[in-house]
């Protein structure tokens, strides 16, 4: 195997053109002091020799990388793809590149990614927290350095970091109330092992709806899972084994809801007749499963755009230590489909 080629430097170009390295450097930066013919010769030589500008070195001088980092729990939902599309649109219009990283909903991985983003000198960071993140200390280095950080979807309340989310309590309250209105009296709630702010808010909305409708909360009807496809299958078996099964299930995300429904159907459970179902996020699979899944829709693209605009705004106003009271609440809506309609 041949050795990798040596990286071409401005000195190699200078030697080839028989001019000074300083002139090459100024020519590459399109400096007005270099005449147009020399500039053209420099550009052509750089191209033919395969020169790559050392962005890192010039970034250190400019103290700006033009790179924004985004950390998400998982890239496997249509909601998150839409968020990233919205972010990318705003950032590319503003001349920034995006580095995307997923924590796979694992706090240890999130901590490592945050450190790597910091070391790579991103100009700003967008974060949707992992499910099991219990504090945001690993992002403090950004705050201390005045690097703007904006949370979205799964946010951490911080006086200097804006957060964009939906009203998860209200959305979960609306879903649970809808199931009750369909005649459900024993509603199970499938949620995350660790109640992150999002999961905790959805749980609170679920309990509030039960209380207001004089339905006693039963601890045994709260099922803690990893919220994955596999967890959906396991949840179905937990439900099948219950001496008294629920007549309604509210799952805190669509992927887990869909796999749980599929597994229950394999065991001849009729949906919604035996058990009514609702999920959350309006992912693609919600409208593919039979019957279609009742869920909550909120616009990922809009959330991404808003988060990126706030970040750009903070980058342009260099004083990032401005306190942030902007906990922005975005609209969400209940999408009622066949899976929950016991009363046809």
Please tally the β strands and state the result. 12
Could you say which overall geometry the principal axes of the C-alpha atoms support? elongated
Whole-number count of domains = 3
- Supply the CATH superfamily name of the largest domain: Response regulator
| Number of helical stretches of at least 4 residues | 12
Order of helices and strands: HHHHEHEHEHEEHEHEHEHEEHEE
Which consecutive residue ranges, at least 5 long each, have pLDDT under 50? none
CATH-derived topology of the largest domain? Rossmann fold
Q: Distance between the terminal alpha carbons, to the nearest Å?
A: 70 Å
Keywords:
4-stranded parallel sheet; alpha/beta; 12 helices; 6-stranded parallel sheet; 434 Repressor (Amino-terminal Domain); 344 residues; Rossmann fold; single chain; 3 domains
